[in-house]
Amino acid sequence: MAVLPVKFTKTKRDKLAQVLWILNWISVVTGAILFSLGLFLKVEINKRKELMAERDIQYVPNMLIAVGLIACGINFLGGKICYDCVDTTKFMRWKLIMLPYIVCTFFFTSCILVGALMCYSMRGELEESLDMGLAVAMRFYKDTDTPGRCFLKRTVDLLQIEFHCCGNNGHRDWLKIQWISNRYLDMTSKEVADRLRSNVEGKYLMDSVPFSCCNVNSPRPCIQSQISNNSAHYNYDHVTEHLNLWTRGCRQALLDHYTYIMQSIGLTVLVIWVFEVREHSRMHLVCMAPLLSITLVFTMLQVQDPLFAGCLQ
Amino acid sequence: MVLMKMKFPFQKRVKLAQGLWLLSWCATVAGAITFTLGCILKTELRRRGEVMDNTDIHIVPNTLMIVGLASLGINYFAGKIGQDALDAGKFPRWKSLLKPYFAISSFFTVLMLLAVIMSYAMKGSLESSLKVGLRNGIRFYKDTDTPGRCFQKQNIDRLQMEFQCCGNNDFRDWFEVQWISNRYLDFSTKEVKDRIKSNVDGRYLVDGVPFSCCNPSSPRPCIQYHLMNNSAHYNYDYQTEELNIFIRGCREALVNYYMGLMNTIGAGVLSVFLLQASVLVSLRFLQTAMEALAGNENTEIETEGYLLEKGLKETIMEYLDPVLRFLLLKNQVQEGEGPDNTVNI
């Protein structure tokens, strides 16, 4: 009775084993993709770490990295189980862990979905973090001699040049802070003394912006100083002049940049989630059904013929 | 006088054919890589094409692309010939094609080496092309309203910021050129009128540079104007100040960048050349060893393989003979009319 069923299903089993092996490796690759996406997001956030205030945004890339690693492990294990379960002699050793494994896969698949949704929800926290971080960076722009803050000038300048932006919300932010260090101000001159006196907090405020706010596409040489004074420059109207400086604020520019990255990552993770759900349900259907039926058959045989069961074991 | 004679027992011939098949596939991949490297170099050169006066340097990436494509074909055939070589039935159909095949493949292999040599030799040409191109770019910086030149300002600004350089040789090039357009100069003010009068050509020259020369790494806000005037700025000495603006010239920066790129590509292409040469040498040995076998019943005897049947000079003359004869044929009329030099009394 046992011979015919084995011969009939051997070719079918081989094909099934091949298909499952391919699916297993595709699942491991998707796990690796998840991991690399998480790593990429973490690197991108750390690149602009100096411009972000302390906020809880590292949990998103960390979660993606963890989920990616677990995905590789779980899919690899699942593939091995599936590969073995078409071979009736080997499946016995997986019998015990089948149920906890299925529970784990359900839990883990929901983690992927949560990870994808978190990518979209991170935006609010990120905006707050950037707002505060940029305000602080601009305040310490002039402190190039203070250890710990000496690279902020370079960071802000390169940011404004690369992202084509100026200030936090716009170029007017620079008019409200002192971005020229006292080291380079001639305190003996009347002009400087007057300006300092006229300010309540004794800050040297100017009607000018740093050079990194200059717009490359402007047809005229950059007007950085006395930007609100039309008479200081020939043929210049600060109200209608749009091409002289970058008009966008850096917070908006950075937010757009990160939103684009996170939306792409979120979409990819959702696609992977759909794929994982399909694969796990297919695997469970393919493996569980014959596994359950074989288990039933063997238990029946054990009950009927103790000697038969003894031979197998 | 045979060049590099070697004995080939049967097993060695089989190993040679197998090795040749493997080498030819590696060389095909290497040929594709050479083509890609040529494309990359060409793209990089075209990106900064506006500051180059001529496109002479493009001969290097063009040659690399041609050689890459040719080597794909050469190595494909080398693999096929290597596969057929051990089969006494299939090998004869390649016999007539082998002489032109070796001529063409040697030509392209030598061309590969020439491309690498050219990438080093053309440094001077690249430098002079950049010198003229940058000089024009700086001169037309202000002409943002002239069609054909309106993007020069943008290009020069972006170039200076990306390569962290200023001017052609250095930042002083900006002092010799009027880079502020007359459209933005108030000719009614005394200052502007004086400055224009003091210049022979009536140009408005300033000792200042555009904002794109500013160095973001400077600890102080950028000083663009009155660069040579220490008293115009507090705590400033133009002779010791190095961080304010970029001191490197853009020509030097671009030449270094492109020479670095071409050196890296040259090293890669050199290794591809060695691989390609080894493919051709193995194929030649296999061909001569199999030809010595011709007509023999027993295919497992030991044969001799060689690189060239005659010496190097005679082989070159043999290949060049038909070419020379073709050229001489054209001049036959003139030869007939000239004096007979071969007669010696």
Describe how the helices and strands are arranged.
The complex is a heterodimer of chains A (313) and B (345).
Chain A: H1 3-47, H2 59-85, H3 98-121, H4 123-139, H5 152-163, H6 190-198, H7 250-304, H8 306-312
Chain B: E1 6-8, H1 10-47, H2 59-85, H3 95-121, H4 123-139, H5 152-163, H6 190-198, H7 250-291, E2 303-305, H8 312-330, H9 332-337
Antiparallel strand pairs in B: 1-2
Helix pairs in contact in B: 1-2, 1-7, 2-3, 2-7, 3-7, 4-7
Subcellular location (chain A): Membrane
Transmembrane segments (chain A): 20-40, 60-78, 98-120, 258-275, 281-301
Membrane topology (chain A): Multi-pass membrane protein
Q: What's the quaternary structure here?
A: heterodimer
Query: Biggest sheet of chain B: strands, sense, closure?
Result: 2 strands, antiparallel
Range of strand content of chain A: under 5%
Using only CA atoms, what is the Rg of chain B?
31 Å
Low-confidence segments of chain B, given as residue ranges, are none
Structural classification of chain A: mainly alpha
- Report, as a whole number of angstroms, the end-to-end distance of chain B: 34 Å
Helix content of chain A: 55-70%
So how many helices of chain B? 9
Q: What's the main sheet of chain A like?
A: none
What overall form of chain B do the CA principal axes indicate? elongated
Task: Considering the chains and any ligands shown, give keywords for the structure.
heterodimer; A: 313 residues; mainly alpha; 63% helix; rod-shaped; disordered N terminus; disordered C terminus; B: 345 residues; two-stranded antiparallel ribbon; 9 helices; 2 strands; 2% strand; Retinal outer segment membrane protein 1a (chain B); Peripherin/rom-1_CS (chain B); transmembrane helix (chain B)
